[in-house]
Amino acid sequence: MVNIPQVVINLTSIGILEELFIKNSDKEGGEPMSEETLDENIDTSKIVSAVLDEAHEGDIKGAFGTIRQNDSQIRRSWARKILTLLAIMGPGLVVMVGDNDAGGVATYAQAGQNFGLSLLWTLPMLIPVLIVNQEMVVRLGAVTGVGHARLINERFGKFWGFFSVGDLFLLNFLTIVTEFIGVSLAMSYFGISPYISVPLAALGLILITASGSFSHWERFMMLFVAINFLVIPLAILSHPQLAPVIHDLVIPSVKGGVNSTSVLLIIAIVGTTVAPWQLFFQQSNIVDKRITPRWINYERADTVIGSFVTVIAAGAIMTTIAFAFQHTSLAGQFTNAGGVATGLRNHLGHLAGTLFAIILLNASIIGASAVTLSTSYAFGDVFGLKHSLHRSFRDAKGFYAIFALLVFFAAAIVLIPGAPLGVITVAVQALAGVLLPSATVFLLLLCNDKEVLGPWVNSTWLNIVAGIIVSILLILSLVLVATTVFPNVNVTEMVTSITGSFVVGGTLIGLYLIKKSNQSKEITTTTTPKAQGPKETWRMPPLALLARPEWSKGRIFGMYLMRGYLLIAVGLLIIKAIQLGGG
Questions:
Q1: Nearest 5°: phi and psi at 364?
Q2: Residue 525 has pLDDT above 60, yes or no
Q3: 427 vs 404, more confident
Q4: What is the C-alpha separation between 565 and 437, in angstroms, rounded?
Q5: How far apart are CA 428 and CA 103, in angstroms?
Q6: Residue 291 and residue 205 in contact, taking contact as beta carbons nearer than 8 Å
Q7: CA 573 to CA 570: how far, in whole Å?
Q8: How many CB atoms lie within 10 A of CB 214?
Q9: In whole angstroms, how large is the CA radius of gyration of the chain?
Q10: What pLDDT score was predicted for residue 426?
Q11: What is the mean pLDDT of residues 281-303?
Q12: Over residues 272-280, mean pLDDT
């Protein structure tokens, strides 16, 4: 009998195995094929994975180069490594810069105008959160070959799929509305009516996306990424002082003290910098770009670079507004991003106002493109539609129709006279912060699913870091809810109490999981043969062949508890946003 490594069983279909058996039987004497010979005879281009859309397989065609599907050359020189990185680069950079969207620009400007430099410390703390969350998404996309929404639906069932994806659809649509609010405010600065600028922006987005060429779309996104760097000359125009910037970057403080309003803004900063749509977008975009496990390290580099770019840009905006408006009548009087542009023109000159308006417009367009595409990818995952930027409009009508409808309705809301645009803008960023913990929980569950990621599952240290991140996000969410219900509560004491509870609870849970893991390892060592074969070629088999994960009663209780809490938190968040909007 042929000695077939376990990894081959995980990677191949019956057809490929039959092909290998035929080759083996044709050998003289019918001797068993060795593992080494078997590995040499595997045609990796025929390995069956969970990829359903054939458009997701083939050459990697990026904005700055092409990598052939069968490319197996080792990159030894730095020049070749950099060229490969440029070809791979895109999903990580676009998702990060796209997260500095219209709502993000407005949130950072509000922080700088109302709180000066005192909230700068929140930004460097978000870099590890961005890298850890999105690195997990990188592995999921490259190894599984399917989108985040489809994985959740298939692994956890339609109920929890609706829980996660339903939240995404609502949040994404409201986020797209804020992008067109940004377009309206930016173009109004130049004297162009929203009834002209918003429809033109919507039409431009549809034309850019529905070209039928992934590389064409990505080149446009890279152009928007380049325009994002205008924040550097804008910051220089505000004549920032290095010493106070460094001080507030490393020493946490809140101007005016910690209260429900400042907590809401901190959560908004977290929500606009680390948003749930990022998980869905980058995973699907990696799949659409045809990135496989062989190129994971390059995509990780793309993600790390994007993380630093987005945080530096956010810090530049916050710093610019803080220095521009300090000691003026505008300090503490944030209205909207359009008012910021006008204020910069009045205090720093026309160039500063123009640069900020261009940055706001650019952020709105790249944000709208990424968030809308994230939603369209998710719809394609859930409803089994062809969903790829490699496909023409004629070949993927449903995918592009969803994109166009989302853009159309979001733009239409912005043009409604008297629409509560201020309330929507404030609520969306904080809503993202409140929903992020649940999205991260699903991400963690998937990244510890051995059926899904095989040898690519999370390491213990990564689970610990991710668990700490989820805990911090939940603490912020709980503080927001508590300060909304009890406006006069002592926030410092409350944060201390909640944090202490999380530390004790987390320690107990950690000890239990370590014990359970050790028991599981003992059983696995004695009953399961060690997986063989290169990790770089392992890809998730078709989802229909995977065993559905079993949830313990404790996990089910925890998930329902989280769902109930989120419903309450979202309701209270809406109340708080309306109060701030003057409703």
A1: -65, -40
A2: no
A3: 404
A4: 11
A5: 8
A6: no
A7: 5
A8: 22
A9: 25
A10: 66
A11: 94
A12: 83
How far apart are the C-alpha atoms of 549 and 105, rounded to whole Å? 41
480-516 pLDDT, tens digit per residue, is 667 666 667 777 777 777 777 767 776 766 666 666 6
Output the 3-class SS for 225-238: HHHHHHHHHHHHHC
479-to-253, 429, 491, 498 alpha-carbon distances in Å: 17, 16, 7, 9
152's enclosing H/E stretch is helix 148-156
Between 3 and 226, the more confident residue is 226
Query: Cα(13)–Cα(544) distance, rounded to whole angstroms?
Result: 12
d(CA 367, CA 51): 27
Token representation of residue 4: 């077939």
The token duo for 361 is: 């417009």
Structural tokens at position 138: 């990188």
Is pLDDT at 27 greater than 70 in this prediction? no
Could you please report the per-residue DSSP string of 476-519?
Answer: HHHHHHHHHH-TTS-HHHHHHHHHHHHHHHHHHHHHHHHHHHHH
Domains of the chain and any CATH numbers: 1-48 (no CATH), 90-527+542-580 (1.20.1740.10)
Rounded Cα–Cα distance for residues 18 and 13 (Å): 9
Q: Give the confidence band of 20 by pLDDT, cuts at 50, 70, 90.
A: very low
